[in-house]
Amino acid sequence: MPTPATPDDPATTNDNNHGDLLPHLLQICEDFLAHSGPATHHEVDTLLRARGITGGPGWLIDMLGLTRLRLQAATHRDEHGTHHDT
User: Fold this and answer.
1) Which residue from 1, 4, 23, 62 has the least number of CB within 10 angstroms?
2) pTM above 0.70, yes or no
3) Dihedral sign, Cα of residue 34, residue 35, residue 38, residue 40
């Protein structure tokens, strides 16, 4: 029997959690790649190079973290009624 979703579970699909899902997914990917081994890093590097990106796995980890932080900052500003230019 599946475990019922908790109110704080970002995997639930109600409208209240959709804004929190993307930063959560970015964090999962960032953590996974930061703690993966050389074989995974090699595969990620090959994938990135096939797309013309030469920064390697470290670049991708940094971009995941930066994107997550930007989303969180934008969400924080929006919650406090601060308007910003995009």
Assistant:
1) 1
2) no
3) negative
